[in-house]
Design goal:
Blueprint lengths: L3 E9 L2 E10 L7 E5 L10 H7 L4 E5 L18 H15 L4 E6 L1 H11 L5 E7 L4 E2 L1 H10 L9 H11 L8 H10 L1 E3 L5 E3 L7 H4 L6 E2 L1 H6 L4 E6 L7 H7 L7 E5 L11 H12 L2
Length: 283
């Protein structure tokens, strides 16, 4: 089945904006999977996972506002989780989904935690990839050192070389996957150079953030849907101890750790896709 590119209109504090998403599978399939990416990534990171699940699900992969092909916000202070959560709620109304499964990497996992913690949540099963209810200050500080910096490249090859370095913690990807990730997380400037496909303004709230541990355990404790937690062995964003606690509190999640990688497993490799697919499709 072919991938389709769509968008929906969402409302924020300072007006409407467009949220782009890709759709895979039968649009009439009532079984819907939403896949949401990390802080500076795009929905196209899930192409490999979506292709593996499109015969079982209608798969929707949004670009969170300010990323990919979605609009950039004029007021950068609007780049907040309440807005992202509201945008996803509007997306569910747009696609007319009463019940969904959810895969969220890092930021996308946090959005899922917010949504799943609310009364009447439509989330039936949830996969949280390398994020948890406690976000260590050290991980936030590392992210703050690079997010929002405008780095340009003379060619897509040079950009890929850079991405392979800064995203080495994503795991061992094949050449096709690195190139795919590079192309779909890039935008070309008027002078022909390349840079990353996100609004540098998403960093403004990081600059004003008091970089200390973030505690969302009360939300985790409110979640009742079956949950799978994935973690990179060397992650500095989801501590091993916190991941274990996630199996003991709230939804009492199942935990799977991937060796020899950090934040965050790319979910592109066949073995990682198999883990997600098998868990989602299990009764």
């Amino acid at each position: 089945m072919a991938m389709t590119s769509r968008s929906h209109r969402a409302l924020g504090p300072h007006g409407f904006h467009r949220v782009h998403y890709t759709e895979w599978g039968d649009p009439d399939n009532p079984k819907v999977l939403i896949c949401v990416h990390g802080l500076t990534r795009t929905g196209r990171d899930f192409d490999f996972l979506a292709a593996a699940l499109e015969h079982e699900y209608r798969v929707i992969c949004p670009d969170v506002v300010g990323r990919g092909q979605s609009d950039w916000l004029n007021d950068k202070s609007d780049y907040t989780y309440p807005l992202y959560v509201n945008d996803m709620a509007m997306l569910l109304a747009r696609i007319d989904a009463e019940r969904i499964d959810w895969v969220g990497t890092s930021m996308g996992g946090l959005i899922g935690i917010f949504l799943a913690s609310y009364a009447g949540s439509p989330i039936h099963k949830m996969v949280i990839n390398d994020i948890g209810p406690r976000i260590p200050a050290a991980g936030l500080q590392r992210v703050a050192t690079y997010v929002g910096q405008v780095v340009t490249f003379d060619s897509i090859e040079k950009m890929e070389k850079f991405l392979r370095t800064i995203a080495a913690t994503f795991g061992n990807l094949i050449d096709e996957q690195w190139r795919h990730m590079t192309i779909h997380s890039s935008r070309q400037l008027e002078d022909g150079r390349y840079t990353f496909a996100y609004d540098p303004g998403i960093a403004e709230n990081f600059r004003t953030l008091d970089l200390k541990d973030i505690d969302l355990w009360s939300m985790w404790d409110a979640i009742r849907c079956p949950t799978l937690v994935l973690r990179g062995e060397h992650s500095d964003v989801l501590d091993h101890a916190d991941a274990v606690t996630m199996t003991e509190r709230g939804p009492k999640a199942k935990l799977i750790e991937f060796p020899s990688m950090g934040h965050a497993p790319a979910l592109m490799a066949d073995d990682q896709i198999a883990v997600v697919r098998n868990w989602l499709l299990a009764d």
